[in-house]
Structure formats: C-alpha cells, structure tokens
Design goal:
By secondary structure, the chain is mainly beta. It is 0% helix and 42% strand. The chain has strands at 2-4, 10-12, 21-23, 32-34, 38-42, 49-54, 65-70, 95-96, 110-113, 118-123, 126-129, 144-149, 162-167, 171-174, 185-188, 197-202, 212-222, 231-239, 249-254, 262-268, 277-282, 288-294, 301-305, 308-313, 325-334, 340-352.
C-alpha cells in the first residue's frame, strides 16, 4: 500500500496497489510518483496544506486545509471536472457548536450546528440555516422572524410595516428598474428645502438584539455624492429615528465630512457610539449590496459590502432597548439640489436562540 512519510514523499510498500503509482527509476523500490498526471502535494509557502490533486492544478496556499481538486485551479473555476465520493453510510461534515469566526468563513462553507441541530452555510456574507432560512427565505415563524421586499411600486406599507416618512419637500417616487434591479423606488430629498428627507422605516420599535442572530441586507444607489454644497447623510439598517441621528440602532452611515467619505459601521446604544467602524470603502454612484450580521448574543456585528467583510464592531449594540427596522434613508443638511437614493430591495432575518 502507498503511504506518505514524514518527508512528504510518496512511497510504496512491497505489496503495491491502491494508486496509479510508478517507481522512480533513479530510486527503485523507494521513490516514485503517481501516474497519469495525478499528484499528492504538501506545503505551500510553509503552510500546513495537503492537496489531493488530479491533473497537477496549481493551487494557492492555505492554513491547515485539505483540498480535493479535479483539474480546478481556483475555487469557482471553469473546470467541468467532478469529484466523486463513495461510501455506504454517507458523508459526515464538520460538527461545531457555533458559527466559525468571520475571518475563518468563506462563501460555500458548511457545517452542522450541534447546539441548534441545524445545517448551516455561509452565503452572501453571513451564516444562515440551510433549510428554512437565509436572507428572509424562512417560513417558520416559530424559530425566526423575517421581512423582505423587492419594492415594486410606491404603495406602502411594505413588508414589515415599513412606510415612507418624508418631510421638507422630500418624498418617495417611482424609480426605473433594470434587468439586474427590478422594482426600484426613489427616496428624493426634493428641491424646496435644505433639509429635505425621505426614509423607509418600520412604524414602531420592535427589534431587540441578543436573542438570536440578526441579518440585515439592502441594495441601493445614489445619484450624486454628498459635498459641502449639497450635503446629506445616509443611514441603512436598524434605527429608531426618522428625522435625525438614532438613539438606538445598528446601521451603515455615510456623509462626506466623516471618515473621509467612507461608509461607517455603527452600533449605538442610548445615544452612545464608542467605536464606529471606518469600513475603508467610499460611497460611489454604483449599485451595491450592503449587509451586516449581529451575533446571537448581541455582542458583535460584522459588516459586509457586496458580500465582502469590511469590519466588526464589538460595543454599544442595544440589547436592552428596542429599535426598529430602518432599511434605508437620506436626510439633507445643506443645499437645495435634489439628491436621490434609489432602493432596489431590503431584507431582515432574525433566527431566535430560543423558539417562541
């Protein structure tokens, strides 16, 4: 039978068999290799990394990983090769008590959560249940709460009792969808005031963090950036005020004069925000998907833009006070030129630690 020794070479015992193996003519009976382009490779750039690789694909390094590769150089590559696993008693995936930390998570990762007795998958920047959950898709109100709306038209309330709240010339008007963004509404600041505003928000405070994992997501675009002439603030997520800064909330926030015009990730508890996050990502005038996940204990929130983690906040999440779903909103503070936030969709999913 073939074996891998401490020196990371493939050897063959006298009995042979098992793999398409050929001896090294220069070292008969000891050294050798797999035939027909098969290889077993270990150690890329010093990492503990084992690759079972058909067709000698070049694979990047990683930490303590096992990769089964069938002519595929990178995850998500275009190879049509398949990997087959046979076993009379099925495939057993990792058994964990909680979601892996954000830095150890990547799209497509799966495991079984022994605490909740559920299969979990990492998708769209967040851990979700594989059956009956994920981006508001759950229909089980015993174990979760969910809201989602694709914003077809301006008739409110939207899902989750979300309504448009506007003032000082601002308002909600119909937008123009695209093939990739069906159902678009415009939150317009108007032109009659320097403080025009329009926000989408639930009618009352009804969300309290700390009783299970909470996910928010929204897709939107702006027609122009805030500047010193026409200034505005964007907020998107959870917050309890439709006319100014939140008292309690977890949300994205942007204005040109703070954090060099980058998006901030904010957790605010009773008007205290001790550690707002500079995501390092500046607002632009393109479509983007914004999201964050608050952990089940309400002690940490991880922010994502287009599915990529942009950082974590570990303080001031309001677990003892209620807030409301506030999918997105724009508030003017200077200038009378219309500024528009075009919204495509929003969603919210609350997976309870203890079912109701």
């Amino acid at each position: 039978m073939p074996r891998i020794t401490h020196g990371d070479e493939m050897h063959r015992d006298a009995g042979g068999g098992g793999l398409p193996w050929e001896e090294d003519p220069g070292d008969p009976g000891v050294g050798g290799r797999l035939q027909s382009g098969y290889s077993i490779v270990r150690s890329f750039a010093g990492d503990a990394y084992l690759v079972l690789n058909a067709n000698l694909a070049a694979l990047s390094s990683g930490d303590d990983s096992l990769i089964l590769s069938a002519n595929q150089e990178t995850p998500g590559g275009s190879s049509s090769a398949k990997i087959y696993m046979y076993g009379g008693h099925g495939l057993v995936i990792p058994l964990l008590t909680a979601d892996p930390a954000g830095g150890d998570s990547e799209v497509g990762q799966v495991y079984y959560n022994s605490t909740d007795d559920k299969f979990r998958a990492y998708e769209n920047g967040a851990w979700v249940d594989m059956i009956g959950a994920g981006s508001g898709s759950s229909t089980n109100l015993t174990s979760s709460s969910f809201v989602r709306d694709d914003l077809f038209g301006t008739s409110t309330p939207y899902d989750g009792s979300v309504t448009a709240v506007s003032a000082n010339g601002g308002g909600l008007v119909g937008g123009t969808g695209t093939a990739a963004h069906p159902g678009v509404v415009n939150l317009d600041t108007g032109t009659s005031s320097t403080t025009g505003r329009c926000v989408l928000a639930a009618s009352s405070e009804s969300v309290r963090f700390g009783g299970g994992a909470v996910e928010y997501g929204g897709v939107f675009i702006v027609n122009a950036l805030s500047d010193g002439t026409d200034s505005y603030t964007l907020r998107a997520g959870f917050g309890d005020n439709t006319s100014g800064e939140f008292t309690d909330g977890v949300y994205f926030r942007y204005t040109h004069s703070v954090a060099s015009g980058n998006w901030q990730g904010v957790a605010r508890n009773n008007s205290v925000e001790s550690a707002p996050l500079d995501t390092g990502v500046a607002l632009d005038t393109n479509w983007h998907r914004y999201g964050f996940t608050v952990n089940a204990a309400g002690t940490s929130v991880e922010f994502f833009i287009d599915g990529v983690s942009v950082g974590t906040v570990n303080a001031d999440i309001p677990t003892g006070r209620e807030t409301r779903l506030h999918p997105m909103g724009i508030m003017k503070s200077a200038g009378s030129t219309s500024r528009v936030l075009s919204a495509d969709a929003y969603w919210y999913h609350f997976e309870f630690t203890t079912p109701r």
